[in-house]
C-alpha cells in the first residue's frame, strides 16, 4: 500500500494532491505506526519504508525518534522494531482513566466464567469491524478471536447493529463492494445485508450464522453511549450447532449485561 493510500485509509480526505506533495511529519508517524500495527509483527525499517511508500531516510529518522521515546523498541539483532513500553503505558492510562472500561472488562470476565463461551467487545474502526477485547471459550470446541484485526462489516452480527443508525444509501456508500464477499467465496447480497440491518434496528440485537466462519453462530447486543448511540457491542461466539434453547438463554443474558453497561441516563 502506498503512503498516500495508507494515509487516506487512516485519515479520510487527507490524501489530496496538496497533501501528497508534502506530508506533515505527524501524518507519517501515524502511517508508520498503523502499518506496524496491521503487520502484527516486528519489521525492519527498510521493509516499513517499502510498505508505506515513504522515503527510507525519512522512515529511519521517524523510527529513531520513536525508539528514543520508548514508543518503539528493537527486537532481536537483525534491526527489527516493534511497539515499546510507552505504548503499554498509553494503553494502561486509557483503561484506567476511562471509568466505563473497567466495568466492561468485569462484564467480559463474568460472562465468560458463567457461560463457558467466547465473549467479545466489538466496535468499528473506519469502515471495518474490530474485536477490542475478548475472553475465549474454555470448552472443548475452543473459539478464539484476534483482537484488533479488521474484518469486513457484512461478515459480522455486530456490524448490523453498529450501522443501524444509517439509512440504506449511507450503508451502500460506506461499505466497499468487495466486503460483501465472504471468506468461503460466497457473495452476500447487498439487499439481504440491508434487511438484516433493519431487523437488528427493530429487534435491538443481531444474530448471524456461518458468515465469517462456517462453524460459528454469533449473538450481538448493543452498548449505548451517553448520547444513545450504538458504538460498542457485547457478543457471544458460539459453535454453529448450539441448540436453539441454549442460544435463547444466552441471548437473554447477553442483552441484560449489555444493557447494564449503557451510559444513557448515567
From the spread of the alpha carbons, the general shape counts as: globular
The level of helicity is 40-55%
Return the average pLDDT rounded to an integer.
86
CATH topology title of the largest domain: Beta-Lactamase
Strands of the widest sheet, in order across it, are 6-5-4-9-8-7
Largest sheet: 6 strands, antiparallel
Q: What is the C-alpha radius of gyration, as a whole number of Å?
A: 20 Å
Low-confidence stretches: 10-22
CATH class of the largest domain: Alpha Beta
CATH architecture of the largest domain: 2-Layer Sandwich
Number of helices: 11
Whole-number tally of structural domains: 2
Extended strand count = 9
Strand content: 15-25%
Structural class: alpha+beta
CATH superfamily of the largest domain: GAF domain
Short note summarizing the structure:
The chain has 266 residues and is of the alpha+beta class.
Structure description:
This protein has 266 residues and is an alpha+beta fold. 46% of the residues lie in helices and 19% in strands. The protein folds into 2 domains: 2-87, Orthogonal Bundle (Arc Repressor Mutant, subunit A), CATH 1.10.10; 98-260, 2-Layer Sandwich (Beta-Lactamase). The chain contains 11 helices and 9 strands. The strands form 2 sheets. The chain has a 6-stranded antiparallel sheet with strand order 6-5-4-9-8-7. Strands 1-3-2 form a 3-stranded antiparallel sheet. The model is unreliable at 10-22 (pLDDT under 50).
